[in-house]
Amino acid sequence: MTDRLDGQRDPGGDQAAGAAPGPRATPPDDAPSPASSPAPASSAASSTPPASAPASGSAAVRARLGPSPAMAGIFLLPAFLLLAAWMIYPVIWSIGRSLYDATGGRFVGLGNYVSIFTDSSALTTIKNNVIWVVVAPIFVTALGLVFAVLTERIRWATAFKLVLFMPMAVSLLAAGVIFRLVYEQDPDKGVANAVITSVHDVFSSDHGYPGARPRENDQAPATVQGGAVVARQQAQPGSPVLIPLVGLPQDAVKDAAPAATAPAEGVGGTVWLDVVRGGGGTLNQVDPQERGLAGITVEAVSGGSVAATTETAADGTFRFEGLPAGSYVIRLPASNFTAPFNGVTWLGPSLITPAIIGAYIWVWAGFAMVLIAAGLSAIPRDALEAARIDGATEWQVFRRITVPLLAPVLLVVFVTMIINVLKVFDLVFIIAPGSVQPQANVIALEMWRVSFGGGGNQGLGSALSIFLLVLVVPFMIFNIRRFRRDER
Amino acid sequence: MRKLPIVVALLGLAAAACGTGSSGGSEGGASSAPASGGGDKPLAGQKIEVAAKWTGDEQANFEKVLKAFEEKTGATVTYASTGEDTGAYLGPRIEGGNPPDVAILPQPGLVQQYADQGALKPLAPEVQAQIDQNYTPYWKELGSAKGQVYGVLVKAAHKSLIWYRQSAFDDAGAQPATTWDDLIGKTAQSLSDSGTTPFALCAASGWTLTDLFENVYLSSAGPDNYDKLAKHEIPWTDATVATALEKMAQIFGKKEFVLGGASGALQTDFPTCVTQVYGEKKAAMVIEADFVAASVGQSGAKVGEEAQIMPFPKVGDAAPVVLGGDVGVVMKDSKGAQALLEFLASKEGGEVWAKQPGYLSPNRNVSPDNYPDNLTKQLAQTIISAGESVRYDMSDLAPSAFGGTDGKGEWKDLQDFLRNPSDVKGAQKKLEADAAKAFNK
Q1: Among A2, A430, B200, B334, which residue carries the largest CB count within 10 Å?
Q2: Which one of A307, A336, A365 terminates a domain?
């Protein structure tokens, strides 16, 4: 449909637009002129009748039709002044400033621009911006399209759209604060990790003693080897093995039975928490106040292979029944001590950019949906129905009819998102903790940081802002040209 | 259909514009009530704007001091909060030629920076007389640049403290340490054995790490080296820095010593680590300054009972005393602005302020009796008696690109060191590279 409109464009179009004040202004003596000059009349489609009259008009006619240039100038002046003060002057000034050093006193030529491409932290920002531009607009547009198409089919579509559009009503700053909490590492605080850990816990659970470990010194009767706790002393029948552990809070064992020394028969011993509340107690000896650790898997290892496995009783003692005489290494396998799964480190250096992009998509997908839904409602139903009557499946209708007809809207959304993404600032600033800001940094944030946020180098800051402008301008031009084409 | 894309596009642009919603700071609030022009109120009718970073209770307390000044002089003082990032707030206002009359800068480094820019006005002789009378020469030098006195330290923060939770120490039978080796080998180890993580670090806020480094360095390398490193007269690749970093690695390198490990600590902002100790009771100690008291209260612990402090243990020959603090400067010269600073630097003004909680005065003539609690009295006494051996927070003396910017310079390099504490050499190299860049500007 737009193609047909585009096809109408002709050199006379500018004049047509200029004469927009309408046919009523056409003086009567000019009235016959369209008829007498058939060439322009035929070139302009009949759908735009006013275009035909002035198309043939001379400069004199046009002058009489529109306001005088002086009048036009007066009307344009306020807008021009505002634009000049807030757009043109700052841009030119920034270009000039970007050629000077931090204090603004020394001319450095393109030095600031060179440092953008040599400084490693600035290069990270460029890399991150590329990731943003590649990923975020596609996801936002695609998700918006899916939502738009789906909501068209459901009851309560408006309610659904309202919910999806709601994030737009929240400022990006607030959205950042929300997602900072969503991505908290602690599953008790962060929703994302709460979901992941509860799903994980359905499939596996831990019953052990995460954090328990032997003391770290040469006198300790046990050491850690590859995650497992191994007794130094070889186990002999009749001499119980002592495996004192530490590092558990008292509250974790407050219901446990007091630890007991294993009877001196067969291969056995005690695993207990060798800590007394408030300090004291004899190191590496079972004291009356100390608690046994129940349910720990104990292995007797001989010559590298596990000869027998048992579990500790409530008082922490264990005994291997029917083990052939000999000496064994007593080992508590690592499975006793595996730390609980603590979710994903969203705010760590590796996942931070995807995490923030996720928040961005949450904010903007609803917006894209609304725009695309508006475009969708304008698609001629007959085209869809004709395709369905011809036997097209829903997927084919979507793929071959809906998407091509929506292409102009999708493109607008996509390009708008690219522009929007290039200047992303607030979400990164708020979601990334200070320690991963360097890894999450983007150009707009870096620009602010080096010029105002402590860096104190407005030369480099100006260079970054000009660089950002250069990146945005092609998309702006593209968008503006599209609008102008669509306008006709 | 024809008009649709335009509507869509306009909507898009509008939304894009709205997306970056800003919280407009209201400038208003200046009461216009003219003070009755009496002979005892020399500044009646004068309007003074003062900008500082304080918010909440700290702001309310400071406003009480301003009120005392207003009552004394008849001037009208409006307070503007700069937020956390004072440089970011003042920078554009200086550029725009519209700075506040008086600014309270959180870093003396900014005094140097703004003095270089010519944004500061030298203090009047009356203010300097107050400084000579009430401060040791170290503080006067701190507020000076290029031989001129520009600033006066109006509020001090004691940064050589370790806060601990009494119940965790009781459970573990741990004792406060006086040496670093005891802190690591005995106190922290016995806490860890008893199942309580010894330290909570707010490593996402880089300055907490620089504070830790400064204490360790001041004690292990001595005040002379400290001054040299602060001015970048010795490089960060110096052996004394390596020693200090290795000491820090004794905490950083042990997974069970740091709550959440390095990764967890690096996601923890200040003051969450205080909450982790006193609110969630997950850790036993937090190495931070006296101003932690406010967060301790919010976590429901009582200072002096559950929340105890020990002086930072000595790593080398003597225990360190590192101070932070806020420096008042005049940005627009006027009688009122100078009079306000004179008031803040005086015994009279200091004692009004000292009666508010959470304030510590570097003014040696402000009697410790004015403070509302014993803890602050003790702290004030240590600062006054430590005298010349006290040092100012090093990162705050450095150019802010090195010592005061999130994600850059020393903050970033120490965070990277926490991530990988075995690489002392690499950390030193990065610190030196960043310092060289920031100091050579």
Answers
A1: B200
A2: A336
Nearest to A436 by CA among A172, A180, A203, A159: A180
A433 vs B: CB within 8 A: yes
Q: Mean pLDDT of all residues in chain A? A: 82
The one-letter code for the residue type at A418 is I
> Burial letters for A153-163: b for 16+ Cβ neighbours within 10 Å, e otherwise?
eeeeeeeebee
Residues A385 and A316 in one domain: no
Q: Which residues contact A125 (CB under 8 A, 6 or more apart)?
A: A441, A442, A443, A445, A446
- Binned at pLDDT 50, 70 and 90, residue A152 comes out as confident
B48-157+323-391, what's its fold? D-Maltodextrin-Binding Protein; domain 2 (3.40.190)
pLDDT at A488: 67
Cis link prior to B271 (omega < 30° from 0)? yes
Tell me: pLDDT of A352 over 70: yes
Q: How far apart are CA B169 and CA B182, in angstroms?
A: 14
Q: Based on the fold, state whether residues A238 and A330 are members of the same structural domain.
A: yes
Among residues 107-126 of chain B, which lie with CB inside 8 Å of chain A? Answer: 113, 116-117
Chain A positions touching B406 (Cβ under 8 A) are 434, 437, 449, 453-454
Is the model's pLDDT at B35 over the cut of 50?
A: no
Rounded to two decimals, the pTM is 0.77
What number of other Cβ atoms are within 10 A of residue A336's Cβ? 24
Domain boundary among A336, A370, A404: A336
Helix (H) or strand (E) holding B283, with range, is strand B283-286
Question: How many whole angstroms separate alpha carbon B1 and alpha carbon B3?
Answer: 6
pLDDT tens figures, A186-210: 888 899 999 998 888 887 765 678 8
Could you tell me the residue range of the domain that residue A21 belongs to? 2-65
Beta-carbon count within 10 A of B435 CB: 23
Judgement on whether residues A294 and A324 belong to the same structural domain of the protein: yes
* pLDDT of res. B223: 87
Domain residue spans of chain B: 48-157+323-391, 161-320+398-439
Taking the C-alpha atoms of residue B362 and residue B390, their distance in angstroms, rounded to an integer, is: 11
Substitution target in B111, B170, B266 with the highest count of A β-carbons within 10 Å is: B266
Is A100 part of a structural domain of the chain?
Answer: no
Bridge partners (DSSP) listed for residue B391: B322
For residue B260, give the nearest of A185, A436, A450 by CB distance.
Answer: A185
Confidence check: pLDDT of B11 > 80: no
At B441 the pLDDT is: 53
- Chain A: residue nearest B118 by CA? A103
Residues B161-196: tens digit of each pLDDT? 999 999 999 989 999 998 999 999 999 999 999 989
Rounded to whole angstroms, how far apart are CA atoms A181 and B267?
11
Residue A123 lies in a domain: yes
The pLDDT tens digits of the residues spanning A392-416 come to: 998 999 899 899 999 989 998 999 9
Question: Between β-strands B322-330 and B102-105, what pairing exists: parallel, antiparallel or unpaired?
Answer: antiparallel
Looking at domain B161-320+398-439, its CATH class is: alpha beta
- Do both A353 and A482 map to the same domain? yes
The residue written with tokens 């509008």 in the block is: B14
Tell me how close the Cα of B265 comes to any Cα of chain A, in angstroms: 9
Q: Minimal CA–CA distance to A221: which of A243, A237, A239?
A: A243
Q: Which of A35-49, B42-56, B353-367 has the lowest mean pLDDT?
A: A35-49
Please answer whether residues B94 and B119 qualify as being in contact, where contact means their C-beta atoms are separated by less than 8 angstroms.
Answer: yes
A238, A264 in Cβ contact below 8 A? yes
Min Cα distance A454 → chain B (Å) is 5
